[in-house]
Amino acid sequence: MTLWLALALMTAAAIFAVLWPLGRRTAAAGGSDIAVYRDQLDEIARDRTSGLIGEAEAEAAKVEVSRRLIGAADVADADKSASGRSPLWRRRATAIAGLVLLPVGTTALYLAIGSPQLPGQPLAARMAAVQQDRSLQTLIGQVEAHLERNPNDARGYEVIAPVYLRLGRFSDAVNARRKLLALSGETAERQADLGEALAAAGNGVITVEAKAAFERALVLDPADLKAKFFIGVAAEQDGDKPKAAAIWTGMLKDAPPDAPWAPVVRESLVRVGVTPPSPTAPPIAGMAAPSASDVAAASGMSEQDRGDMIRGMVARLADRLKEDGNDLEGWQRLLRAYMVLGDRDKATAAAGDAKKALAGNPDKLRQIGDTIKSMGL
Amino acid sequence: MTRKQRRLILIGGSLGVLAIAAVLVLSALSDSIVFFNSPTDIVQKQLKAGTRIRVGGLVKPGSLERGEKLNVRFAVTDGNHDIAVRYQGIVPDLFREGQGVVTEGKIEADGSFVADSVLAKHDENYMPREVVDALKQSGRWQEGEMKTDAHVVSKPQ
Amino acid sequence: MIPELGHYALVLALALGIVQAVAPLIGALQRDTALMRLATSTAIMQFVFVALSFAALTACYVTSDFSVVNVIENSHSMMPLIYKFTSVWGNHEGSMLLWVLILAMFGASVAAFGGNLPTTLKANVLAVQSWIACTFYLFILLTSNPFLRVAQPPFEGRDLNPILQDIGLAVHPPLLYLGYVGFSISFSFAIAALIEGRIDAAWARWVRPWTLAAWMFLTVGIAMGSYWAYYELGWGGFWFWDPVENASLMPWIAGTALLHSAVVMEKRNALKVWTLLLAILAFSLSLIGTFLVRSGVLTSVHTFASDPSRGVFILMILIFFIGGGLALFAWRAPLLKQGGLFAPVSREGALVFNNLFLTTACLTVFVGTLYPLALEAVTGEKISVGAPFFNLTFGPLFIPLMFVMPFGPLLAWKRGDVLGVAQRLMAAFAIGLIAIAASFAAMGMSSVLAPFGIGLAFYVMAGSLVDLVERTGLFRMPMATVRARAAGLPRSVWGTALAHFGMAVTLLGIVCATTWGEERIVALKQGQSVTLSGYDLRFDGMVQRTGPNFRELAATFTAGSGGVAIGAMEPSKRSFVARNSSTSEAALLTRGFSQLYLSLGDVNEDGSVAIRVYFKPLVLLIWLGSLVMALGGALSLSDRRLRVGAPKPAKKSAAKPSTLQPAE
Fold first, then answer.
1. Is C151 exposed, middle or buried (0-12, 13-18, 19+ CB in 10 A)?
2. C459 in a domain, yes or no?
3. Which among A23, A364, C281, C372 has most CB atoms closer than 10 A?
4. pTM exceeds cut of 0.95
5. pLDDT digits over A358-369, tens only?
6. Do A17 and C41 lie within an 8 Å CB cutoff?
């Protein structure tokens, strides 16, 4: 609304510029060349008195300029007799042009090429808005302050535990999970979550403590998926591949075909050398976000194996993106993976591919650009 | 002197100056124009050694070698043919393998090219116009891949 | 909202421009004062709107409003504030907006301060000016719109081309445009005169301040551009004969010729037709310059990202104004009355000589610049015309021009006395000869031609002061009289002397820097040093730094002379993350008017670093001379004669003029 008001005011100012001179009565006093020639005569006189030019030269120049002066005066007289007519109809026609054509033409052209519906978006204002949205640190601070005052509020721990885990504050996550268990009692899910946190805190190794938590979870609910999976990982880490394979195959057998965790399990199966049962619809070999489970799985292997496994995953992701390049998150993950692997060249190449693949989508293109920039590529 | 004579002097003088200018222009042009060639042109035209030319194309990936005393060797390619280029000096900031380049210098008796100036792109999107044309001719150009922008000269002679 | 306000303001300016292009023309034809008066208010309002539009775009840049495509493409939120301002015109669209802003500003200035112009002339001038403005508004709105938006703005822009992230961008383009576009006023005056079919001595006086202002800005603009290229491009050259540089030089030469021929017209009512033609040509050459920069037909340092539709549009504008202007000239010029008579040897004769050589020099530059285009169009061969061509053609034409330069102001009007003038120039000749002898004695036979160049420069410097010395009676009269006389001299006399003097200073700088400059390209390891022209440079080590939007690798050097340290030099390489590109920043050490110049090449595997080091003797004189020339122009501009017929003093205080009428 403000925009339209401002545009209207501007248009009014423009119209005023056209109408105002039409309405004035007084004839404008224009300059004339006579003044110039008079000044030239004065100048000659000055030069003569200060001795800059000789008498004869001054005379000749004076004659020349005087002749020009007379000529100019004649023309001026002729002009005067002819000027000053300003018929009303002409002024009216101009006024109408100014009043109608000017605003109509301007608006038409502007609407054709302008974008009045888009608000201005200065970066500072946008940043402030974003800050409000997801100022994670402030949020954590608030929750922590709340828990300090009410140390027995279970919901607070429930909220903050996954956040800690995501941020890599594993021991805080473990504490929060423990507190939650103590406050609101045992469930399979809570035990499994504790186990996950413990495993993460142990750099991915399923420690005795973690394994105990998962086993306790399975006692409470034998179908708990997370616990099952991690027990498999534990078996794998213990070197008992067949057991791990058996657990995971079992999980896949019962799984709905589109289970979001299925790809991770399938990856794990491949790792222990078992071809996963082919699902009804062949899923894309995607790479899950580096969750604690992946870390856990990987940490049980030798350096060499782990490297191979990660590279294998990355290569598959790269292949997939080559076929379907429209996956923004995939590209971001691939870039991060290359950077983590220290493969800067490949990362640079992938950044280029990503830009090309996402060129059709400005929004995604911008996001991938941000990612690339944040990596210093 | 009458008005006519004065005018004749003026016109005569003007023509004289113009004639001098024309002589200067023609003699200078024959000495200081440099033809642009793609590597394919050089192979096809069998240019004489010692001719001063410009060669443009892409710096062939993997061909760049830096030697002692700021010597640089690289190959310029248009996709069909390559030409080896030697240069001594500092290459421009954005001189890189796989990027467009225009070099100016002379062909040696052995068919290699000794450049005394190297022009490189100045912007990630820039490709010298001559190079674009050369690549188009050799069919290695994809339309819309690059747009022209500023470039800069490395070292003039 | 702000970008849309700017966009709308530009459309409004176009609409007002159309009114201004039509109504005053009809008004002048019918002698309808109301319609003629319309030109004044619309011209001023047009300027207000374009200024608003420009301010809006600037605001978008400063606040990093990435909903504007132009801002995304040429800005970065981390850029220092000054570059956020300058990047407004560091790209095609924004620089076109600056172009029309200046165009509208000149139009508004004529409207506001042209009270001494006859009403019909003023109306016609403003109408023609508006024709130019309208075509460029259309060009911007239809092919190069800086206000295009995106609905989903990114969080970061693509950054300004690193080479442009320099204070030079703040100075060079605005000054250059003030010059280029300033000639539009001379053009409009010429076309208005042709439309009216009447032209006389007074016209020359009216058009002179505008031409002078444009010339002055162009002089400084070209000089600043040259200095910028000198320190930014990293190989120490100050003029590259690059097509776009030539494109700015050609209007400058034509403008210089116009300034001189307008003097003849004002004083003697002669050379009227020629002056008109020059006024048309000067602006035509400015337009050609714009075309060359924007269309990308020639490869050059300055070329903007190009787009064929823009090239075609500008070509159409070019054909319309140049073709139309010249056609009108061919039709109407023969009807103009002949002017005063003069002998070949006279002040007029000298000015004609000046014009003849300037236009010929301009022509050779034109040929050299456009020959590659023509040849490619005809034979398909691609060529480049290098600096030797211009040095071989432009140089020889400028030598006689420089030689005659001191004669001009000393010759009498109508019929001059060459021998008498030569006698008055005896002292100058002597100084020139001494300079030649001294340079041979100092520099030996290292160059045969250069000492003559130095001699010529000193002769012109001395010669341009002769008029002042004689007129003030310096060395002959008591100081009080000299002072009184000096104060009584018209400022234009001072201006002429200063401008000629500055030209000679520039010549001196060019001769010295190109002849006796030294260059070394070496690779140094830490602790090693290189010696050049008596200066030692020791490489002390490398430093890694981080700038706001770049990373910088700087090498520190200590410069010494005769074992005494005289300063530190830090050339560096900057890499700009957002654009994935890098620049070299040269380090300069000024000694008097000379400079040591150091630029960084690659860092080798063995830890040594390649550097390019130059010693440029008296190089600063090149640009100082240009500034002196411009100062001469400014002095001339402040001459009271140029304000004759201006509104009465009472009104004067109300309308405080900016560039055109500096306080006395």
1. exposed
2. yes
3. C281
4. no
5. 877 777 787 787
6. yes
